[in-house]
Amino acid sequence: MIRATTLVPLLLTLVQPALAQEPGPEAGKSFFDVVKPEDLKNFCIFRNEAYSIGAFSCEGRQANVCAGPNDPPPPGINNMGRAYWKPQKADQGCTQ
Contact 68/83 with Cβ under 8 angstroms? Predict the structure, then answer.
């Protein structure tokens, strides 16, 4: 009990300066406000969220990896010079 009563005030003194910091100039802005339009081609977009090249996602049992704009797309897909979601085998971790 004595340890707890001395540990709590110590933790509060360490946390208080971190909470008192002012937010940076990017605070309150979304990803799309910060990234230049010409750089968006290097990100995959899903549900209005940006993912970097190499990001892995699962939608149901379908696995996808964010492929770069220079990666060859599968037949029938035109990536138009942008990053795109490339289907992968679902054995890479997509289980329900």
Answer: yes
